[in-house]
Amino acid sequence: MRGVPRAPRRRRSDPEPTTHLGDWRRLDRLARLGGLLAEVAHEVRNPVAVLRSLIALLPEQADDPEFRERFAEIAGSELARLERLLDSVLAQAGDGAAPAKAAGACEIGAAVESVTRLLAHRAAAAGVHLASELPPVLPRAPLAPDALRQVLLNLALNALEATPSGGDVRLGARALGRAVELSVEDRGSGVPRALRRRVFEPFYTSADRPGGLGLTISRELVEAAGGTIAIGDRPGGGSRFRVRLPV
């Protein structure tokens, strides 16, 4: 048929179209970043809600020195939390190596009590009893105060989301020789052994544990400090997250 151009025939000597390895890596990074967008939105809501609550209380308690001190502490911690979230997203879009800004030392008891106070209202609204158990003396953890609070906050939020109304969530810590162990226990349905490594992956989602970056960031911070994080069973039902750090 005249007037219709024909596609040129490929000669046997012409090379097959190829996709370079670098192209595949770039496409993989873009796919991972796209999948993270919904999780980023989920994670951003928590610090934004905390900051909104503090700002709402500011006109009434601006003259209270204790409130101002607590406001500065929590606001700084939540802003650092957002910064780490962005670092993780940028790392997913880059070479996958997230920078861990966790150097420092922290009083463990103060961090546990701070997180317990911060989440008390949320736990009460969900009908969950939130408590902490601490010995009178604990060694310092090799993490910056805001980094340790973020680890505990991420684990505690995960525990509250997994625990049904009427259940309880417990935070604890104990010294173990040249290490210190922190624990966060919930009354959820537990995590099967075969899936316990996957809950720290950024894309992991289960029926009672929504996907997100909180556990991923927690693992990065703990491992950057030379520690470990693992999941076990809580006696009577539920999960127990254990964080072990050198001292």
Structural write-up:
The structure is a single chain. The protein has five helices and seven strands. Helix 1 packs antiparallel against helix 2 (65-93) and helix 2 crosses helix 4 (145-162). The protein has 247 residues and is an alpha+beta fold. It is 47% helix and 16% strand. Strand 6 (228-233) and strand 7 form a beta hairpin. The protein is globular. It folds into two domains: 21-93, Helix Hairpins (Orthogonal Bundle), CATH 1.10.287; 106-246, Histidine kinase-like ATPase, C-terminal domain (Heat Shock Protein 90, 2-Layer Sandwich). It starts with 20 loop residues before the first helix and ends with a strand.
Ends: how far apart? 83 Å
Largest sheet: 5 strands, mixed
CATH-defined topology of the largest domain: Heat Shock Protein 90
Q: Which architecture name of the largest domain does CATH use?
A: 2-Layer Sandwich
Helical stretch tally: 5
CATH class of the largest domain: Alpha Beta
Structural class: alpha+beta
* Succession of helices and strands: HHEHEEHEEHEE
Helical fraction: 40-55%
Instruction: List unreliable stretches of 5+ residues.
Output: 96-100
- What average pLDDT do the residues reach? 78
Topology, pairings included?
Elements: H1 21-61, H2 65-93, E1 106-107, H3 108-125, E2 129-133, E3 140-141, H4 145-162, E4 168-176, E5 179-185, H5 214-224, E6 228-233, E7 239-246
